[in-house]
Design brief:
Largest sheet of chain A: 3 strands, antiparallel
Structural class of chain B: alpha+beta
Shape of chain A: elongated
Strand content of chain B: 5-15%
Largest interface: A-B, 18 and 22 residues
CATH superfamily of chain A: Winged helix-like DNA-binding domain superfamily/Winged helix DNA-binding domain
Number of helices of chain B: 24
Number of helices of chain A: 5
Helix content of chain B: 40-55%
Number of domains of chain B: 4
Distance between the termini of chain B: 59 Å
Number of strands of chain A: 3
Strand content of chain A: 5-15%
Number of strands of chain B: 21
Distance between the termini of chain A: 35 Å
Oligomer: heterodimer
C-alpha cells in the first residue's frame, strides 16, 4: 500500500519545479526562513540562486499544497536577530522530495547505462 | 550615507516594488519578501558595496515585474483549471438566493425576451430556412431557361432535351435529373376510394442526386426509364401511412389514373423534397415515378421540366454557372438557331431564401433590437443591484478585498443570472412554440417539425450567459471603483450622482429601441391589414372551391369529361343554400396558369414593335357564369353564355390587355388567334389576381373551358351558408355521379386567400410579438426606475410632505420624472423610425413607412403603457408617512 502511494506520488503531476525541489532540500535539514533558504541554495552552489519573488511564490504555492508549513515567527540569528517567518517541511513534502530524488537517481542510472556519463566523471 | 540608511532606502524600494504583485499575494507574503530582500541588501552591501546593491535593486525590479505579472495571471490560470469555480459559484448562488426579487426580475425579463426570440428563431429556422433535408444542399441547383430573347420570362421550365444535355455534360455537374409534377388520381387497391395525389415524374437518378435513399425497399434502377420502363412507384412516408403503413405494400400494385404501378420503395419520414417552380412557391409530391419517355427525344420548344443538378462537392457557384451556361449555348445553337435562349442555375438555398429575404431582414432587425432592449434592461437591473451593494463593496474593499475579485464576482453573478434566464427562456420557448402551433394563428407549413431543438436551446442559453456577462460589465467596473471614501462622500444623497444618470440613460435607450420596434411592428401589422382588405378582384367570402380531376385513363373521351363536368355542376347547384356554381382551370392566387403570347392583329394599340405587341399573358378556361359566381367586375361586354353555339369561340380579356391594345375605343369584337383558332372578345373584366392580392399580375385571357377541352377543373360554389359546412354535401353529391371521381383541394376561397398571405401573416404575428415584448420590457425598466426613485427620495418626499406639499403634487413630481425620460426616448427614437422605415420599404404594401396613423397609434400606446408603468410605483408615494419616515432617517 505504502509503496503504491509513493509510486503514485512519483508519477502523478504536478511534478516539483526546480525551485520547489531546492526549497524542500533546504528545509529537509531543519526549519529555515526565506533568506536562509536562499543562502543554503547558494552554499550548495549547484544552481542559479532563485529570485526572492520567485521563491516566495513557490513558498506560497507549496504551503497551499501542504508540502511545507509556516513555523513560528521568531528572531533570526543570521539576519541581525530581526524576526523572520520560518518554514518547515511536512511529511508529504518529504515524500515528494524523496520521490523526486528517486526519479533523478533513475535518470542518472539511465544516463550511465547509455554512456552519457562515465563512472569516473562522478 | 550610513549602511543602515542605505538598507532602509532599499527597503522602501522593495516595498514600492510590492505594488506590482496582486494585493492578496502581498498581503500574505509581502512583508516576508521585503524582509528577505532587506537581508540580501545588507549582504550585498557587506560583500560588494553600493555597486552590488544597485545590481540588487535592478534585479529586484526585474524579479517583481516578472513574478508580479505571473502572480496576477495566476487566478485566471486557476480559474481555467476550475480551481475556484465551485467556490465562486457557491458564493454567487448564495448571494442571489438572498435576493429573490432580483433573480425573479432578471430571469423573468430574460425568459420573456429571449423566449420570444427563441420562438421566432425556431419558426424562422424550421419553416423558412431548414426545409432542405438533403445531403450537401449547397451543391444542389435548379436550372432554368431564360426566355427573354423571346418574351418576358426569365425563369422558365426546361425542355427535356436540356435535361438530357445536362446529364451528358459531366465536369463539375455530377448528376442531373428532370422533374415533372402531375396531379393524378390514386387508389391503393382496385375499388378503393380514389384520391388525388401529386406525383413527381423524374429521371431514375433523382434520389442519388438528392443523396437520399428509401427507408423501405429500393429506389429506381438506372434502366427503369423510357417508353418500355416497368411502371414502378416509390411512396413518401406520408402517403404510405395514409394507405395503412404496412410493410407488405412492397411489391403490390397501386393505381395511378387507373393504370397499375408496382410499389418498390417507401421514403423515410424526413425526406421532404420540394421542387421549386418556375413561378409560385415550391411544391411537394406524394409519390415518385420515372419518365415513360426519352427526354432526349422530346420537343425542345416545349418547356415543362424542372432541372435539378448536383455539382461536384465544393464547386463554386460561378463554376457551376459557367458549366450550365456552356450547356445552354450548345442547346441554343442546336435547337434555337442561336436566338439567345440561356440556361442558368440557382442554388437551392439562395432560391428559397431570396423570396423571403425582405421578411427575414425585418425579423432579424427586430430580433437585434429586442436583444438590445433586453441587454439594457438587464444592465439596469444589475446596476440597481450594484447600487444596493455599494455599501458592501466599499466595506469589503476597505477591508482589503481585491478589486479584481469584486469585478469577477459581479461578472460571475451576471453570467449565472444569464444562464438561469437562458434556461427559463428555453423552457418558455418550448412551451411557447407548442402553444403557437396549437393555437395555429400562423397556419404553418411543416408544423410537425416546428419545435425547439437542442441547437436552438444551446444558442439561447449561450446568448443568455453572454447577455448576462455583457450587462454585468458596467456594474462590475463601477463596483470595483467603489471605495469607503466615495461612499461617505455620497452618503448624504444615497443613490444620487453618476449611477442615477446611467440608469436614466438606460431607460431612455429602452424607450428609444421599443419605439422603433413598435413602429416597425405597427407598420408591418398595418400593411398586413391592408393586404387582408386588398381587393383581389373577386369576392372570396362564401365561396367553396374543389378540383375534380378527370384523367383520360378512365374517361378517355373529352366529350364524356365535358358531360361529367356539366353533371357535377348541376349536382352542386342542387345543394341547399347554393346560389351559383361554375368552374375554372386556374383558381386565383394559385399562380398556376399557363402562359401564351397574345397578339391582336389590327388593334389600334399595336406599336410595330414585335415584342411589345405580343405580351405574355396568363390564360385559363372557365365555364359559363364564372365571373358572376366569383364576383368579378365586368368592365364592359358580357361573360360566357350558358348556351354554347357551334363555331362561336368567345374570349374575355382583362382591363390591362384591353388598355394596351385598345387605349381609347372598345375591345369588344376583337379577334385573337389562340391555340390554332380565333377567339372573339365579348367582355372585359378586372383581374381576379393570380399572384399577389394587392397588385395585378400578367395580362389575362379567359376562354370557355368547353371550347378547348379542359378536363380537370376547379369548381367554385357560391353559397349563402358557411362555405366550409357545404363540404360533406358536395362530396357525396359528386360521389353519387361516379365513385371514381376524386375530390382534391377542397378549400374555401377564404383559405385560398389566407394561404396566399401566409408569409405576410407569419411576419406580422412574429414582429408584433417582438414589439409587444419590447414594450413590456421598457415598461418594466420604467417601473424599476420610478419605484427606485420613490425609495431613494423617500426622505426628501417625506420632508416635502412635512412642510405641506400635498400627495397629488408629489405623485405628479415622480411621474414627471418618468415622463421626461419617455419624451427624451421618443425624441431620440424618431430618426430610428425613419431608418427602420427605409428598411421596411420592400416589405410594406400600401402603407408608407412614415404612415402618420400608425406612428400616431404607436406613440399613443407607448405613452399609455409607459405612463401606467410610472404611475403604479408612483402611487407608493401615498404610503409615505412623513413623521415615521423622518424619524427613521
Amino acid at each position: 500500500m505504502g509503496m503504491d502511494r509513493e509510486r503514485r506520488g512519483v508519477d502523478a503531476p504536478p511534478l516539483l519545479r526546480r525551485v520547489e525541489f531546492h526549497i524542500l532540500l533546504s528545509l529537509a535539514s531543519g526549519e529555515r526562513h526565506g533568506y536562509g533558504i536562499i543562502l543554503d541554495i547558494e552554499a550548495r552552489g549547484e544552481t542559479a540562486v532563485p529570485d526572492v519573488g520567485t521563491m516566495y511564490r513557490a513558498l506560497s504555492r507549496m504551503v497551499e499544497r501542504r508540502l511545507i508549513e509556516a513555523a513560528s515567527r521568531r528572531p533570526a540569528p543570521d539576519a541581525a536577530d530581526e524576526r523572520r517567518n520560518y518554514y518547515r517541511i511536512t511529511e508529504a513534502g518529504r515524500r515528494v522530495a524523496r520521490a523526486e530524488v528517486r526519479r533523478l537517481e533513475a535518470l542518472m542510472r539511465a544516463a550511465r547505462l547509455g554512456g552519457l556519463v562515465t563512472k569516473a566523471a562522478k | 550615507m550610513s549602511r543602515e540608511r542605505l538598507v532602509d532606502l532599499s527597503e522602501r524600494w522593495f516595498r514600492l516594488l510590492q505594488r506590482l504583485y496582486p494585493p492578496d499575494f502581498s498581503d500574505d507574503m509581502g512583508t516576508a519578501v521585503v524582509e528577505t530582500y532587506r537581508d540580501r541588501a545588507r549582504d550585498a552591501l557587506k560583500r560588494g558595496g553600493v555597486i552590488r546593491l544597485a545590481a540588487l535593486w535592478v534585479r529586484a525590479l526585474v524579479d517583481s515585474v516578472r513574478n508580479g505579472a505571473g502572480e496576477r495571471a495566476r487566478p485566471a490560470v486557476l480559474w481555467r483549471r476550475g480551481g475556484h469555480w465551485g467556490r465562486d459559484a457557491e458564493l454567487a448562488t448564495r448571494r442571489l438566493l438572498r435576493a429573490p426579487a432580483l433573480v425573479l426580475a432578471v430571469v423573468g425579463t430574460l425568459g420573456i425576451g429571449l423566449g420570444l426570440f427563441a420562438v421566432v428563431y425556431t419558426v424562422v429556422q424550421k419553416v423558412l430556412i431548414e426545409p432542405l433535408p438533403y445531403k450537401d444542399p449547397d451543391d444542389l441547383y435548379f436550372v432554368w431557361r431564360d426566355y427573354r430573347a423571346y418574351f418576358d420570362l426569365s425563369r422558365g421550365w426546361l425542355g427535356g432535351t436540356d435535361v438530357a444535355e445536362l446529364q451528358k455534360a459531366g465536369g463539375v455537374i455530377e448528376g442531373a435529373s428532370g422533374l415533372l409534377r402531375q396531379l393524378m388520381t390514386f387508389s391503393a387497391r382496385e375499388g378503393a376510394d380514389a384520391t388525388e395525389i401529386a406525383v413527381m415524374i423524374a429521371s431514375p437518378n433523382l434520389f442519388d442526386v438528392l443523396g437520399a435513399q428509401p427507408a423501405l425497399g429500393r429506389g429506381f434502377a438506372k434502366d427503369e426509364v423510357g417508353p418500355k420502363r416497368p411502371p414502378v412507384i416509390v411512396l413518401t412516408h406520408e402517403l404510405w401511412n395514409r394507405v395503412g403503413g404496412d410493410r407488405a405494400i412492397l411489391g403490390t400494385t397501386v393505381r395511378l389514373n387507373g393504370e397499375p404501378y408496382t410499389v418498390i420503395g417507401v421514403l423515410p419520414p424526413k425526406f421532404g423534397f420540394v421542387r421549386n417552380a418556375s413561378l409560385g412557391p415550391p411544391q411537394r409530391a406524394d409519390a415518385y415515378t420515372t419518365f415513360n419517355i426519352n427526354l432526349a427525344e422530346t420537343n425542345p420548344g416545349q418547356g415543362s421540366y424542372a432541372g435539378l443538378i448536383r455539382a461536384r462537392r465544393g464547386t463554386s457557384p460561378q463554376a457551376v454557372a459557367s458549366s450550365v451556361d456552356a450547356v445552354g449555348r450548345l442547346v441554343d445553337a442546336r435547337d434555337f438557331k442561336n436566338k439567345g435562349l440561356k440556361l442558368y442555375p440557382v442554388g437551392l438555398k439562395p432560391d428559397l431564401v431570396a423570396s423571403i429575404r425582405p421578411a427575414l431582414v425585418v425579423l432579424g432587425f427586430a430580433g437585434v433590437l429586442l436583444v438590445l432592449v433586453l441587454m439594457v434592461n438587464l444592465a439596469s437591473v444589475l446596476i440597481a443591484r450594484a447600487a444596493q451593494r455599494e455599501h458592501e463593496f466599499a466595506v469589503s474593499r476597505a477591508l482589503g478585498a481585491n478589486g479584481a475579485a469584486v469585478v469577477r464576482a459581479t461578472l460571475f453573478e451576471g453570467g449565472l443570472l444569464g444562464l438561469a434566464g437562458g434556461v427559463v427562456a428555453t423552457l418558455a420557448a418550448i412551451w411557447g412554440t407548442r402553444t403557437l402551433i396549437a393555437l395555429a394563428p400562423l397556419d404553418l407549413p411543416r408544423r410537425e417539425a416546428v419545435a425547439v431543438d437542442w441547437r436552438i436551446g444551446a444558442t439561447v442559453i449561450g446568448l443568455g450567459v453572454l447577455l448576462g456577462l455583457v450587462a454585468a460589465i458596467t456594474p462590475a467596473t463601477w463596483a470595483a471603483r467603489a471605495t469607503l471614501s466615495s461612499l461617505l462622500a455620497n452618503s448624504a444623497v444615497r443613490g444620487g450622482g453618476g449611477r442615477g444618470r446611467l440608469r436614466r440613460a438606460m431607460v431612455v435607450a429602452q424607450v428609444t429601441l421599443s419605439l422603433v420596434l413598435l413602429s416597425t411592428g405597427g407598420l408591418v401589422v398595418r400593411s398586413f391589414d391592408r393586404l387582408l382588405r386588398a381587393d383581389p378582384g373577386f369576392q372570396p367570402e362564401g365561396l367553396l372551391t374543389m378540383r375534380v380531376p378527370m384523367p383520360p385513363q378512365f374517361i378517355p373521351k373529352v366529350e364524356d369529361a365535358l358531360a361529367l363536368q356539366e353533371r357535377v355542376e348541376q349536382a352542386l347547384r342542387t345543394i341547399g343554400g347554393v346560389t351559383g356554381v361554375s368552374a375554372t382551370s386556374t383558381l386565383p392566387l394559385t399562380a398556376s396558369a399557363s402562359q401564351n403570347l397574345v397578339r391582336i392583329p389590327g388593334a389600334p394599340g399595336n406599336t410595330g414593335n414585335a415584342d411589345r405587341d405580343a405580351p405574355l399573358a396568363d390564360y385559363m378556361g372557365t365555364r359559363a357564369g364564372y365571373f358572376e359566381v366569383m364576383g368579378m367586375r365586368l368592365v364592359e361586354g358580357r361573360g360566357f353564355d350558358r348556351v354554347r353555339r357551334d363555331g362561336v369561340r368567345d374570349a374575355v380579356i382583362d382591363r390591362n390587355l384591353a388598355r394596351q391594345f385598345f387605349p381609347t375605343g372598345t375591345a369588344l369584337g376583337a379577334k385573337i388567334p389562340f391555340n390554332n383558332q380565333i377567339v372573339t372578345v365579348v367582355g372585359v373584366v378586372d383581374q381576379a389576381r393570380l399572384y399577389d392580392v394587392h397588385q395585378d399580375g400578367r395580362p389575362q385571357l379567359y376562354v370557355r373551358a368547353e371550347d378547348f377541352g379542359y378536363r380537370t377543373l376547379a369548381f367554385v360554389v357560391r353559397t349563402r351558408r358557411d362555405a366550409q359546412a357545404l363540404v360533406p354535401e358536395a362530396r357525396s353529391a359528386i360521389r353519387q355521379i361516379d365513385p371514381r371521381l376524386a375530390l382534391a383541394d377542397v378549400r374555401t376561397m377564404d383559405d385560398v386567400v389566407g394561404d396566399a398571405l401566409r408569409r405576410q401573416r407569419i411576419s406580422a404575428v412574429l414582429i408584433s410579438g417582438f414589439a409587444v415584448g419590447a414594450l413590456l420590457l421598457a415598461a418594466m425598466g420604467l417601473f424599476g426606475i420610478v419605484s427606485g426613485s420613490v425609495t431613494r427620495r423617500r426622505h426628501e418626499l417625506a420632508l416635502r410632505l412635512a412642510v405641506g406639499a400635498d400627495y397629488g403634487r408629489l405623485v405628479r413630481l415622480v411621474l414627471g420624472e418618468g415622463a421626461a425620460l419617455v419624451v427624451i426616448g421618443v425624441l431620440i427614437g424618431a430618426p430610428g423610425i425613419y431608418i427602420a422605415g427605409s428598411l421596411l420599404r420592400g416589405v410594406l404594401v400600401g402603407v408608407s413607412p412614415l404612415d402618420p396613423l400608425t406612428l400616431g397609434g404607436v406613440a399613443v400606446s407607448l405613452g399609455l403603457v409607459t405612463m401606467i408603468a410610472c404611475y403604479l410605483p408612483a402611487r407608493r408615494v401615498l404610503r409615505i408617512d412623513p413623521a415615521q419616515s423622518l424619524r427613521q432617517e
